[in-house]
Amino acid sequence: MTEHHVDMPAETLGAEAGLRRASIFRTLEDWPILPIILLLPIILFGVFGPLISPYDPSAVNPTVALRPPSWLTGDGLSHLFGTDYLGRDVFSRVIAGARASLLVSFFGVGIAGIVGITIGLVSGYFGGWLDTVLMRLVDIQMSMPAILLALLISAALGSGLATVIAVISIVFWTNYARVVRAETLSVKSRDYVAMARVLGCPDARLIRKHILPNVIDSALVVASLQLGAAVMLEASLSFLGLGVQPPAVAWGKMIAESKLYLAMAWWLPFFPGVALVVTVLGTNMFGDWLRDKLDPRLRNT
Amino acid sequence: MLRYALKRLGVGLLCLVGVSIIIFVAMRLAGDPTLLLLPDDATEQDRIELRQELGLDKPLPVQYAIFVTDAVQGDFGTSTRWKMPAMELVLARLPATLQLAGLAFLIAITIGLLSGVTSATTRGSVFDQGVRLGVTLGLAVPVFWVGLIFIMVFAVDLGWFPTSGRGSFAHLILPAVTMALNPAAAMSRLSRSAMLGVLGADYIKMARVKGNSEARVVWKHGLRNAAIPVATLAGIQLANMIGNTVVVETIFAWPGIGKLIIDAIFARDFAVVQAAICVVAAAYIILNLAVDLTYGLLDPQIRYD
Amino acid sequence: MQTRREFLVSSALVTAAVGLPRIGFAQSQDNITIAIGDEPTTSDQTVAWTGVDYNTIENYAEYLFPRNTDGEIVPGLAAEWTYSEDGKTLDVTLRDDVVFHSGDKFTAQDVVFSYERGIDKSATVKNRLRSLDNIEVKDDYHLTFHFSAPDVTFLPNRGAAMIASNSYFDRVGEEEFSRQPSGTGPYKFSSYAVGEYVEVERFDEYWGAVPPIAKARFIFVPEETTRVASLQAGETDLIMACPYYAVKGFDAVGDFKTVKLPVNHPTMSIVFSTQNPEDPWHDRRVRLALAHAVDTDAIINGVLFGVPQRLAFLAPYEVGYDPDLEPYPYDPEKAKQLLAEAGYPDGFDMELNYAITGRVQMNPQVAEAVAAYFEAVGVRTKLVGEEWEAYRSKYNAAKEPGSSYVALFTHGRAGSPDPTYNLGLFFRAGGPISIYNNPELDAINAEATATMDEEMRGELIKKAVRLIHEDVPSFPIYNNFAVYAMKSSVNFTPTQGFNFDLVLVKDMSFA
């Protein structure tokens, strides 16, 4: 939970690609094969969930409550990941959870990105009092711990999928704003941009044509690293009772709910936990790859 | 440097005002404490009277003006749940949180730096792969889950540590380690990539050529140059730790400020939430300033103006 | 369910697999450590108002009319008492050999002080004493309570206010009075660590039988899984509010045991707003259909681990208990038929409100299960879970006649000081927690409230309960059971037949 506010300082972005290796590794570095392998099933679950799902994820059947995975007990494939305390199929719920978790992280991180990039661009490009005000806003936001901010927002807005997305957007936008502002400052000082300004090129056009393309890469890297953190924040909110509400299912919520059954039904937290780890691993690896690929300073080397 | 510090403190104060306004408005949007302060059989008239007694019937700007006037005199109001001065309550709980956050921070830094740097110097090795996997797990496993598992294994099964509460040093270990895992992973990840960036540089090659021992090269020359991003992250983590104790304090019944804030939010105890978040925000601002000032020690080329 | 592993088994497995030594934490036989959920909001018995306060305070402060462990009201600080014929005056004789922990002697003046201070400082005491006019002091050990109307809850509430010392207050002042409270209880308040624990010590000059345990420490462990772990690890001797999931595990292992106490209040119920003709559930048949639609036994056994029970309305020990009244059985076919008769053969859409935070365990799970049963008879149920404050505000708003509202709610049926009290609170038009309106019921209940004769009151209460049962403004899912879990070496008899789950150290001992 602690790394929500962490920016990867620009100096270190892409440092890992300093050493290049040959053959298969080269291919792996050119194409994000491993991340794709990890993330593809998750994305498929999220998009086509209802078609794949063997059961209705909210169908209750107390007579089969808390059954272990069926292949362990010789019951074939009836409940691949077992059942929960209401007899719901955990496999179907993990699939359904993909949708909520992806919605929460993509929308949360996406909205945060749009807001943060805009503010970062405006702040860095125009400077002056606008910059001061916007950056103080960032300071104010960052001096309130993420989870407490999340609690306050949930208390004020009520809880549910939309609130979780709002919380993530509000907590995460500052990271973009800071990174994009720093990049904007450096791009702005380049000769051709300064020249264009002098020649009277409209600000909006200049930002769109020259600055945005140069800062978008860093923003994408930040985004890919935040996807996992977003899912984790959702989990923490669920633990405190304020995550997504039924019938929506999210992995963090599934893990949080399983705490009562910790010692009697390991499969309840295990499978959503694996989904969570795979997603975070996948997005982080993708982020690393993206960073190696896109970072402008690296491209020059 | 003094001028810089003073200017930053001024900005910090401004931030604090901003924080207090946000908290003030957000809490009041979330309802009021009268439902939670009265027994089930209280009447609507009782609620109205209580609201007047608490001054919640006044317009919001007036309420805020009263809050600020009192707060600058050190009076943050009285807790509606615990019936004692809010700031007193917060300060009584602060040492417990500082203890927990401090130890967790030390653990996170130690494990994070050691594993990150070693992993960078042995890039591609089994150790490196292990660290990278560990980092991913550290970033992907929810804190509350780790805490509950730790209690089951290390307190209930093995009996090495107490399950919860505060008292001896042993009480501190499980919650601190639980809290340290996530920041340790982030620290490891960052120091690994910062070191990788540095190790390819010419001056490191020079140091090697000059016949310095590998350990000296890595830990002295290498780390010194990777120090700025690492210190930045460390500062942010230390500051965030104080606020991020919420979940861990709940699980381990640790009587700190995080647990206090969440109880106060649920109880709509405005005075306590305001006092506590102001303290946390102030701590964050001061720690960040301290980190900025240490940059000068790490890299004499940095000037403050 | 048979596949569910007993939870300590896995503990043993982990230990065996890792092959590491287990270190225990030794405990003394004279002292007891008790884990409770939340921290009390005050130490001052006259200010106390909410459940968590009484856990600790009842060990060092007392009411005038205590209950024994069977729940009967017995002589205590009040040695004798007699009601007048009309029930409006109560003459009380006090014990003359009682001293406070501060050394002050207990007299009638302390009673007047405690009642006045209670009414002023505690909303709970104020509400319980709404019908009290004044207290007349005859001499140091005789006084008379005057009521504006007969109050059948005054004695069951044990006299409503806890007793503190007037002379101690005058001597030390407000701050010290609440920092170092002084009562007449078998234990005296000894220390308090904010956020951690309250400690009490045996009081050797107690007027009654001196209890076996010398010292007790109440530690605050809000997270229920941690509370369970603290007992498993042997750090605590007894935990209160043991979550239902852990009961079977503790009962199965020789080192531990549980004591289940049917507190019965609150009754987790489905509650309807009945007054809006637009709502399908304005029609009694629809409400009845939904009552038949839910398999409460399956919920109790499957979701709530078989711990609590469901009562039709009152508990067997209450005035007016009706042994012939049965809860509505699970009958989805009948439910569908009733829905069709009411004009909803294809069901309808409905929101079910419930609280996602608060002290009731497994609320979301129960709400999800209930919603699934509603769905099964064709009622499309949207779950609306909200944080406690927001949820309660919405419930209060449902008092408006035009509102449209259904909730899983901590309703009041069984387990009150007197059944008329819950009827007035939860079912009377305009009652503080009522969203129901039935003038016939209110008339019967008003009569019952004014009737001092137990038998006559019982008949009236029976009639009122039947009315509610027929009209289904709410139906029960389960009644609250308080569970205490403890080491098998601990003996504890909780107070039965009472609407609080007390943790009185005087009723504990080590085997």
**DSSP strand tally of chain C:** 18
Number of strands of chain A: 0
Q: In DSSP terms, counting alpha (H) and pi (I) runs of 4 or more, how many helices of chain C?
A: 15
- The chain-level mean pLDDT of chain C equals 90
The dominant shape of chain C is: globular
Structural class by secondary-structure content of chain C: alpha+beta
Q: What's the gyration radius of chain A in Å? A: 22 Å
Main features:
heterotrimer; A: 301 residues; mainly alpha; disordered N terminus; B: 305 residues; 13 helices; 77% helix; 0% strand; globular
SSE layout:
The complex is a heterotrimer of chains A (301), B (305) and C (511).
Chain A: H1 23-30, H2 33-52, H3 90-126, H4 128-142, H5 146-157, H6 161-188, H7 191-198, H8 203-239, H9 251-257, H10 267-294, H11 296-300
Helix pairs in contact in A: 2-3, 2-10, 3-4, 3-6, 3-8, 3-10, 4-6, 5-6, 6-8, 8-9, 8-10, 9-10
Chain B: H1 2-29, H2 34-37, H3 44-53, H4 60-72, H5 86-121, H6 126-140, H7 143-157, H8 169-199, H9 202-209, H10 214-243, H11 246-251, H12 257-266, H13 270-298
Helix pairs in contact in B: 1-13, 5-6, 5-8, 5-10, 5-13, 6-8, 7-8, 8-10, 9-10, 10-13, 12-13
Chain C: H1 7-18, E1 31-36, H2 51-57, E2 78-83, E3 89-94, H3 108-121, H4 123-128, E4 132-139, E5 142-147, H5 166-179, E6 187-193, E7 197-202, E8 215-220, H6 224-232, E9 238-239, H7 247-252, E10 256-261, E11 267-272, H8 284-293, H9 296-303, H10 332-341, E12 349-355, H11 363-376, E13 380-386, H12 388-397, E14 406-411, H13 419-426, H14 439-449, H15 454-471, E15 474-479, E16 482-487, E17 490-492, E18 508-510
Parallel strand pairs in C: 1-8, 1-9, 12-13
Antiparallel strand pairs in C: 2-3, 3-5, 4-5, 6-7, 7-8, 9-16, 10-16, 11-14, 11-15, 17-18
